[in-house]
Amino acid sequence: MEIVAVEINKPEDVNIILGYSHFIKTVEDMNEIIKTTIPGCEYAIVFSEASGDKLIRYEGNNKELIDCGIENIKKISAGHTFMILLRNAFPINILPQLKMTQELGTIFAATANPIKVILAKTENTNAVIGVADGYSPVGVETDKDKDKRRKFLRDIGYKS
After folding, report:
1. Do residues 45 and 33 make contact, with C-beta atoms less than 8 angstroms apart?
2. Which of 18, 58, 85, 134 sits at 20 to 30 Å (Cα–Cα) from 44?
3. Distance between CA atoms of 11 and 36, rounded to whole angstroms?
C-alpha cells in the first residue's frame, strides 16, 4: 500500500464538499437537495461507483463544474466517493440536509480552500484517509481580528 496526496483543482470561486456514500442513488438524492435548498446556485455532483458498472455518475447544472468534478474524482479514484462543487453558495447552506441523506456515510471536507486528498493506494482501488484543507495557522486572533471576523459574518448575512 502507498500513501499519496492528490491536489484538487477547482476554480477559485468554488466550494467543494467531499464525502463517502454507499449507493448509486446518491447523485439523484443530492441533486434534489441542492435544487430545493439553494435553487440559484451553480453546481455539480460526481460520484465514483465502487461496484456494478463502476462508472462516475454525475448531475448538475454547470458543465465547467461537472467537468472539473469528473477530473478530480478520476484523480481520487476511490469507490463510493462523492464531490459536490458549488458556485454562488456555501456548504453551510446544504450540510444539514446532506447529512440526512440516507446513504451518506462521511463528509471529509467542506471548503473553498486549496485541498489535498490523502489516499491509501491499494491493488484495486484507493481509499480516502483524510484531507489537508487550506493552510496551517500563523498566529492567534487579536481583538482587531475578532472584530473583523464578526463584521465579515454580518456582511455576508450569517449573523445579525
Report:
1. no
2. 134
3. 24
